[in-house]
Amino acid sequence: xxxxxxxxxxxxxxxxxxxxxxxxxxxxxxxxxxxxxxxxxxxxxxxxxxxxxxxxxxxxxxxxxxxxxxxxxxxxxxxxxxxxxxxxxxxxxxxxxxxxxxxxxxxxxxxxxxxxxxxxxxxxxxxxxxxxxxxxxxxxxxxxxxxxxxxxxxxxxxxxxxxxx
Length: 165
Known about the structure:
The chain contains 8 helices and no strands. It is mainly alpha-helical.
């Protein structure tokens, strides 16, 4: 693999796993590496064929650790918003960030062969988040969070079904 392609793919993985929205990631990488957005999109859809090659190399360990730290920091910020006195809509957004971060971490660990394909940890973390949140909200916030929880449950079911559970 050429050095520039290798760097572009590493950066793609970093942006993907740290929660950069797909369209923004495509735009950023296309501009940075002076390739078409279609090239980036195509490479992203075929990442199953090259992701493990990049993540499995010994020299990528610091890169993987950095990814995990960034995901942890995202979750910490999400928890701060959830436990603070933010509005219900901000708490729902934070819950979405928490879910996405946990989901991406599970996917990363699975692609490294460090986690089983069954996302049990994901399910446990979501249940823990829900329990803590519901203990600390008003009735209006609880109704809003119930709607958000229903959305997250659908996403979790989709994640489970796509991983063969």
